[in-house]
Every structure is written in C-alpha cells, then in structure tokens.
Amino acid sequence: MALTKKSNLSRRNFIKKTGLSLAGTMVISPAFSQVLSATTKKRKVALVGTGIRGISFYGKFLQEQYSDVIEYVGLCDINPGRVAYAKEYIGVDCPTFTDFDKMLATVDIDLLMVTTVDSTHHEFIIKGLEKGIDVVTEKPMTTDEKKCQMIIDAQRKSKGKLIMAFNYRYGKLFSKLKTIIDSKEIGDIISIDFNWYLNTYHGASYFRRWHGLRDKGGTLLLHKSAHHFDLLNWFIGSEPLEVHAYGELEKYGKNNAFRGANCRSCEHKKECDFYWDITKNETYMKLYAANEKHDGYIRDNCLWREEIDIFDKMAVQIKYSNNVQVSYSLSTYSPFEGFKIAFNGKDGRMETYEGIPWRDELQEDQSKIHDKEMDHSSHSKAELKYHEIVTQRNFEDYNLIKFPFVRKGHWGGDRLMFNEIFRNQIVDKKLKHAAGVREGSMAVLVGIAARISIDEKRPVKIAELTDLVPKKQI
C-alpha cells in the first residue's frame, strides 16, 4: 500500500531545498567551451570488444549522440565476423582489427574503450595506459587481485587516465540518494541494508553466456555486483575494510534433470521454463549466431550445463574504515526485477525500492524490464510516475519524497556520464561522480574478497589483496 505523506513543515522545507531534479545543478567546466569550439579536433576513439554491450552502448549510442565531439578510428575483436558486423551496426567508416596490438601500433587513438570479456580487461587497459592514452573500461575493472595490482601499477606510470564507466553513480535516483545522505538529513550513516533481485529473464541470461564461468567473469560478485559495491563506497564516502560472504550455486548449472547443447537445438524446449528463442532477435542472430564459426561462442547456451561454476545466490557483509556496516545480497532467479535499499543514520532512516510488484499500481512485463534499463532511445513507453523515497528522523513523522521515475539509460545515468567524459559537462561537482583506478579497484576488491571468503570460509581484509590501504574518508 502506498505511503501517505504526513504533515511536517521542516521536512517539506527540506524537499524544496534539495529539489526533485538535478537539472538545476548542471555546471560546465571551463574546458567545455573548448570542446565545442569549431577549431577543436574531435576526440579519436577506438573500441575493443564488439559484443552487444560494445556495439550498442559504446557504439551506436555514442555515434548517434556524440559524433560532433568524437571520431571512431578503430574497432577490434578477436572474432572477424563480429567486428565486421559492428562496423555496419554502429554506422562508422573506420579500420577494423582482430589483432589489438596492430590497432595500437597503426592507429592514432586519444581514448580507448574496453568492453571485452571481463577477465581480459586488464590486458587492454594496461596496454592502453602504457601507450599513454586515456582508457574507459566497462565494469568490472578486472576479476582478481593480481590483475587489479597490475592495473594500479600501470596507472601510476602512465600519463594516460583510466576512467571507470560507473554509470549507476550518475543515475538520477542514486544521485538523489547521495544528495540526501550528504545533507545529513538522517545524520551520519551507520549501516546499510541492500538487496538486489534479478528476475528469471535477466538473471538467467548470465548463465547462458560466458558470465557463467568464473574464469571469464569472476562470478556475478564482480560482473554485476561491482556496480552495487561502487554505489555503496560512494554513498558511504569511505572504503571497505573487511568482507565476509556466503554463496552457492543451487538453481542453475548442474541443478536440473535435463540439459541441451543450446536453446536452438534443444529437445526440451517445451518443458523448459527458461527456453529462450534467439532467432526472434535479428541483431543477436547477426552478431552472434552468424559468427559462431569463428570462435565457437554460443550466445543461447544451456543454462543447465555442468561447466557453470559461479554462484546464483550471494550474501555479503562489509565493514568500512569509518565503521559503517553493510548487509548486501544478490538473487538471480527472483520472479521480479528490482531492489530495496535502506540507510540507517544516527538521526534517522531513509529507504527506497524499485520493482516490487505489490508496491506499484502499474504492473510491468518482467521480460522487458532489463530492455528498458538498456534503452537509449528518445521515446519509450509510459513508465511509473515516480520513485518513492522515505526519510524519517528519530521521534518525528516520516516524509515521502516522490522523485520523478527514470529507468532507461541506467536511471538516466548513461547520458550524464558520457556528457562528462566527452563534453566536460558536469552535473554537480560536489557529488564527485567521476571514477578512476582507485574507485574501480575498491569496487572489485569487495567482490574479489567476497569470492575468496566463500571459497575459503573466512573473513577477508581488503588490505591483504593489493597495496592499496583503505581510507576512512574519501
């Protein structure tokens, strides 16, 4: 049942001061005018990794929205068919490569974008930094502590800059939460409860792909949770000190009576609730199915295959250097997609949610929810009217903030992040959205520590993983 706002003038004044929109806080850096100058050359960008994330988010979207300030000078992928299709799909006229070293040696690049398999991110990040160019990498930065240290070392020696694509930070809802936290409306944060739910469409998709193998994606504690761990680090304004976690594989993989080679050829289509018809997606057929012959990668693989070795349920306890405690969980086979997050402060509490069916008047098609998150179009079907954020100070009535609802483009964060990277256009300097190697490291180190904790059944200190010493305040 929806909450009803109680009368409280002090709370009402607070809302007016913080506002419902971030639009009023937009600032332009001095460099912005130079970017728009007619005499300024476009930034030369190259992309390595032409899977769907690469060709859509870092490809077609950038080409359509930022071609006035960027120019594609190279596309690279180990699969010749995929990289050829990427050039056509993105709509660019630039050289294509299957040899990354050749691209680096022959093309003049200002900024390299890395969207390859997670476990290979470090290879391209390091080579880019060694060449002295800026690098934007998709999350997670990397998948184990040794690779993390290698990236840290490379950044220390390079004149180039590693930029983490933590678009969740820029999401309008999450920026609103950060603004309220920083205002001390509920006092200093002492603990956070954070639960994320992946549904049986989006969650299941990870187990069909290379993400189901820990030597490729490092488990979902890295590939998916790196977003969430970075949000927590950013919200709290401190760095993680120690992690203790539990996790199991109890639904997918070997936990089924039958399995097939892939969905297209499976004899169990009619009896498998998770059957997915890739032939209905023209882009996936052209990008993946048509190019299986080159590298053997199957996009509609069986999520019951026995080689899957990641967790499908995870619970993580995190202690921060400033003594904040976090309880986090990730579920991968929920009937609905969404999250709940609650901040406990010394003077009160704040909480919000998304996607909880019985809380929303508008019921959404669960099979389409993730598509909305990834949508970058100018127009989309009607969404919910607002997010509900509830704050309540101790001994006072609760306050309900109705914040305009945005899901597409990662809560509106994608465009804001790219505006900062490519146009030097900053939403709010005080929020410190931009993230680099240290932020990328701290996000993955929580996931790495959690994985080690599960495997070795012990708490893991962040300081034992790399030479970074966690800070009390950031």
From TrEMBL:
Domain Gfo/Idh/MocA-like oxidoreductase N-terminal: 44-165
Annotated Pfam families: GFO_IDH_MocA, GFO_IDH_MocA_C
PROSITE patterns attached to this UniProt entry: TAT
InterPro entries tied to this protein: Gfo/Idh/MocA-like_OxRdtase_C, Gfo/Idh/MocA-like_OxRdtase_N, Gfo/Idh/MocA_Oxidoreductases, NAD(P)-bd_dom_sf, TAT_signal
Ranges in coiled-coil conformation: none
Domain named Gfo/Idh/MocA-like oxidoreductase C-terminal: residues: 179-462
Protein name as catalogued: Gfo/Idh/MocA family oxidoreductase
Organism: Winogradskyella echinorum
Lineage start: Bacteria, Pseudomonadati, Bacteroidota, Flavobacteriia, Flavobacteriales
